[in-house]
Design a protein that fits this description.
This protein is an all-alpha fold. It has 15 helices and two strands.
């Protein structure tokens, strides 16, 4: 495999009467759109919805539903890592385009305000669905401080805010690395992912080992660097095959080893099933490389446009899909048969997609609630 050069020098001639370079701002070429990122976003949000429709049913450990549950989990667990990896590709170079102040203003407007508002939406929706009294002031304040208490999926936005807070440091480091930025990305990915996994593993084996230490932000930043490194490294076919084999092994470890640990050693189950686990990293990396390797730029323009539009609605679907699941469950649409999980997930995804598309026609909603 080989790393793409971080930059390239282009020789050019300049007329004698041309203005000095300092007075003529060079136009930055618009980077080619990565179609595979659109496809990854669409696939990842379908995975997320499929994981969350399981809130409406339970399965016995010795039932066929338990088998399907683990196959689904071992496949869809790549969703959140893929989201962070895509963020790394688009954001780790942000200091080449804009100031830190502009970055924070744009990103926190798109993340912090929806997080606070949707926490309240989920809080009041819970009262509506469960026919309980309206929330008290204390409950409203508690949800403002921790929105994931009522909308469990909102934890991702909270983690994303943590990543944004530290991202300028890493963006400047990457910028300063020059031609070695891809090598630095690989190093940061390894450190950012493996260090929290190592400490968490030791904690699970022996809780007395650094019991207060945890570093989720480091882990998710590690996924950002992994996405950047994978996107900017060209892999030969043998290397891709190695990545695919490791990815399939990671997914199988989640499907086969994970249930065994959950049933026999519950404290160790996360070693094979959590987002910050070696099997998940291998599987997510393999999925990423597979879609990156597809010749998606050859697709008809209409198909690429459709993928781009679906990808643009992904964040809104993430915000709203759990509300639809809760609403359907409250009004007589519980999922009681695990065999219906796939079509039910597609129904929730499509419903969320349509609702987000409609809501985004309202300018204030598009600007503040579903950016």
């Amino acid at each position: 495999m080989s790393s793409k050069p971080a930059s390239a020098q282009v020789a050019s001639s300049q007329p004698a009467d041309a203005q000095p370079e300092s007075q003529v701002p060079a136009a930055r070429p618009k980077p080619a759109r990565k179609v595979y990122l659109d496809l990854i976003n669409v696939l990842a949000i379908i995975f997320v919805v499929a994981l969350h429709v399981r809130f409406n049913y339970r399965v016995d450990y010795d039932s066929p539903g338990w088998v399907l549950e683990n196959i689904l989990s071992g496949t869809a667990v790549a969703a959140v890592p893929l989201f962070f990896m895509a963020s790394g590709i688009t954001l780790l170079n942000f200091t080449n385009r804009e100031s830190v102040g502009t970055f924070y203003k744009k990103r926190f407007t798109k993340i912090l305000i929806p997080l606070l508002v949707w926490g309240q939406v989920y809080l009041f929706a819970r009262s509506w669905f469960m026919h309980t009294p309206l929330p008290t002031g204390e409950e409203i304040l508690a949800v403002l401080l921790a929105p994931n208490k009522v909308g469990v999926t909102l934890w991702y936005l909270e983690a994303l805010i943590g990543v944004y807070l530290v991202l300028p440091i890493f963006s400047y480091a990457l910028r300063g690395a020059g031609e070695k930025k891809v090598q630095l990305a690989w190093l940061m990915a390894a450190l950012g992912l493996l260090m929290p996994i190592a400490t968490a593993t030791l904690q699970k084996i022996n809780p007395q080992f650094m019991p207060e230490f945890s570093a989720p932000i480091v882990g998710y930043v590690g996924f950002c660097f992994l996405g950047y490194a994978l996107a900017n490294t060209e892999f030969s076919l043998p290397w891709r095959l190695v990545i695919y084999v490791l990815g399939i092994a990671g997914s199988l470890a989640h499907i086969l080893v994970g249930p065994y640990l959950v049933l026999n050693h519950p404290g160790l189950g996360g070693l094979a099933t959590e987002y910050l686990s070696v099997p998940t990293i291998f599987w997510a990396a393999a999925v990423f490389v597979f879609f990156k390797s597809l010749p998606l730029n050859r697709l008809p323009e209409a198909v690429q446009t459709g993928l781009r539009k679906l990808s643009a609605l992904t964040f809104g679907v993430y915000l709203i899909h759990l509300l639809i699941i809760q609403g359907l469950a409250a009004y007589g649409w519980p999922l009681v048969d695990y065999r219906l999980e796939a079509p039910y997930a597609l129904l929730v995804w499509a419903s969320s997609l349509i609702l987000v598309w409609l809501l985004r026609w309202i300018p204030p909603v598009r600007k503040w609630l579903i950016p």
